[in-house]
Design brief:
Blueprint: H1 14-27, E1 31-37, E2 49-54, H2 64-77, E3 87-90, E4 95-98, H3 99-104
Antiparallel strand pairs: 1-2, 1-3, 3-4
Protein backbone atom coordinates (compact mmCIF):
# COMPACT_ATOMS: atom_id res chain seq x y z
CA UNK A 1 0.00 0.00 0.00
CA UNK A 2 1.28 3.47 -0.86
CA UNK A 3 1.68 6.07 1.88
CA UNK A 4 2.25 9.80 1.93
CA UNK A 5 5.25 11.23 3.84
CA UNK A 6 2.93 11.82 6.81
CA UNK A 7 2.31 8.08 7.00
CA UNK A 8 -1.32 8.43 5.96
CA UNK A 9 -2.18 5.87 3.28
CA UNK A 10 -2.67 7.50 -0.10
CA UNK A 11 -6.05 7.26 -1.75
CA UNK A 12 -5.52 5.08 -4.84
CA UNK A 13 -7.87 7.14 -7.01
CA UNK A 14 -7.06 10.86 -7.23
CA UNK A 15 -10.32 11.49 -9.08
CA UNK A 16 -12.27 10.00 -6.21
CA UNK A 17 -10.66 12.41 -3.72
CA UNK A 18 -11.52 15.39 -5.91
CA UNK A 19 -15.12 14.20 -6.43
CA UNK A 20 -15.46 13.86 -2.66
CA UNK A 21 -14.10 17.39 -2.14
CA UNK A 22 -16.57 18.75 -4.72
CA UNK A 23 -19.49 16.87 -3.14
CA UNK A 24 -18.64 18.12 0.35
CA UNK A 25 -18.18 21.70 -0.89
CA UNK A 26 -21.61 21.48 -2.54
CA UNK A 27 -23.22 19.91 0.53
CA UNK A 28 -21.56 22.36 2.98
CA UNK A 29 -21.14 25.77 1.27
CA UNK A 30 -18.22 27.74 2.73
CA UNK A 31 -16.45 24.68 4.14
CA UNK A 32 -12.66 24.58 3.82
CA UNK A 33 -11.65 21.62 6.00
CA UNK A 34 -13.32 18.67 7.65
CA UNK A 35 -11.68 17.13 10.73
CA UNK A 36 -12.79 13.51 11.08
CA UNK A 37 -12.43 11.13 13.98
CA UNK A 38 -14.19 8.20 15.57
CA UNK A 39 -14.55 10.09 18.83
CA UNK A 40 -17.88 11.87 19.00
CA UNK A 41 -17.86 13.78 22.31
CA UNK A 42 -21.56 13.01 22.76
CA UNK A 43 -21.11 9.23 22.42
CA UNK A 44 -19.47 6.75 24.81
CA UNK A 45 -18.35 4.43 21.99
CA UNK A 46 -16.49 5.01 18.70
CA UNK A 47 -18.73 6.89 16.30
CA UNK A 48 -17.99 8.85 13.09
CA UNK A 49 -17.62 12.53 13.98
CA UNK A 50 -16.69 15.61 11.95
CA UNK A 51 -15.86 19.22 12.70
CA UNK A 52 -16.12 21.53 9.68
CA UNK A 53 -14.18 24.80 9.45
CA UNK A 54 -14.50 27.66 6.98
CA UNK A 55 -11.62 29.52 5.26
CA UNK A 56 -11.10 31.72 8.35
CA UNK A 57 -10.73 28.62 10.52
CA UNK A 58 -14.04 29.20 12.28
CA UNK A 59 -16.08 26.14 13.19
CA UNK A 60 -19.29 25.88 11.21
CA UNK A 61 -22.38 24.75 13.11
CA UNK A 62 -24.03 21.92 11.19
CA UNK A 63 -26.71 19.41 12.01
CA UNK A 64 -25.76 15.95 13.24
CA UNK A 65 -26.79 14.22 10.02
CA UNK A 66 -24.59 16.42 7.82
CA UNK A 67 -21.52 15.98 10.01
CA UNK A 68 -22.04 12.23 10.25
CA UNK A 69 -22.49 11.85 6.47
CA UNK A 70 -19.35 13.93 5.81
CA UNK A 71 -17.35 11.80 8.26
CA UNK A 72 -18.58 8.54 6.76
CA UNK A 73 -17.82 9.62 3.19
CA UNK A 74 -14.25 10.53 4.17
CA UNK A 75 -13.80 7.28 6.12
CA UNK A 76 -14.92 5.32 3.04
CA UNK A 77 -12.46 7.03 0.69
CA UNK A 78 -9.55 6.27 3.05
CA UNK A 79 -10.55 2.95 4.65
CA UNK A 80 -6.95 2.01 5.47
CA UNK A 81 -6.04 5.25 7.25
CA UNK A 82 -5.24 4.99 10.96
CA UNK A 83 -8.59 6.19 12.29
CA UNK A 84 -7.46 5.77 15.89
CA UNK A 85 -6.38 9.41 15.52
CA UNK A 86 -8.17 12.35 13.86
CA UNK A 87 -7.48 13.42 10.29
CA UNK A 88 -8.23 16.62 8.40
CA UNK A 89 -9.54 16.64 4.83
CA UNK A 90 -8.68 19.85 2.96
CA UNK A 91 -11.36 20.49 0.35
CA UNK A 92 -9.24 22.86 -1.77
CA UNK A 93 -6.43 20.35 -2.25
CA UNK A 94 -8.47 17.17 -1.75
CA UNK A 95 -5.81 15.97 0.69
CA UNK A 96 -6.02 14.09 3.96
CA UNK A 97 -3.50 14.69 6.75
CA UNK A 98 -3.21 13.52 10.32
CA UNK A 99 -4.66 16.33 12.45
CA UNK A 100 -1.89 16.06 15.02
CA UNK A 101 0.67 16.62 12.24
CA UNK A 102 -1.19 19.69 10.97
CA UNK A 103 -1.38 21.14 14.47
CA UNK A 104 2.34 20.51 15.08
CA UNK A 105 3.18 22.77 12.14
CA UNK A 106 1.54 25.75 13.83
CA UNK A 107 3.29 27.80 16.49
CA UNK A 108 2.68 26.92 20.11
Amino acid sequence: MLAMPSGTPACPDTGRRHRLAAQLADMIPGAATVRVSLTDPKQAWPHPHAIVNDEAGETMQLDRTTTRVAARWILRVWPHADWTRPHTFDLAGATLTGSDLAAAGRGR
